[in-house]
Amino acid sequence: MELQARCLCVVAMLLVAGLAALEPAHGAGECGRVPVDQVALKLAPCAAATQNPRATVPASCCAQVRAIGRNPKCLCAVMLSDTARKAGVKPGVAMTIPKRCAIANRPVGYKCGRMHSHRTHPHSYTLP
């Protein structure tokens, strides 16, 4: 009887483990474990600079872009996010912000757009 109980317990544990393996993984995305749209909100100080290439880029914007830009994949995803689009961000202008902030170690030539994102974006952009 004790052997049957142990076997039943082992089978139950294997069944639970098997079901857990079938669950979709919620791993890291372009910006790690933080959703892209949440990171995009940090770029609020950049609003005017993302719409006008001649607008002065505030220091607070440059600080956020510098931090986010350490991961070019994240920076691209943020600049092309739904949140950015709804806020009126012009991606071609937004991509110039790292250069306008004179960020020395920016990823010059990094391509953003449909080839670097799981979302389909109609255009690709290159960071200057």
TrEMBL record:
Segment forming the signal sequence: 1-27
Organism domain of life: Eukaryota
SMART domains, alphabetized: AAI (SM00499)
Keyword Methyltransferase attributed: no
Keyword Signal (UniProt): yes
SUPFAM superfamilies: Bifunctional inhibitor/lipid-transfer protein/seed storage 2S albumin
Domain Bifunctional inhibitor/plant lipid transfer protein/seed storage helical: 31-112
Pfam families, alphabetized: LTP_2
Keyword annotations: Signal
PANTHER family named in the record: LIPID BINDING PROTEIN-RELATED (PTHR33122), OS01G0849000 PROTEIN (PTHR33122:SF76)
Full protein name: Bifunctional inhibitor/plant lipid transfer protein/seed storage helical domain-containing protein
Organism phylogeny: Eukaryota, Viridiplantae, Streptophyta, Embryophyta, Tracheophyta
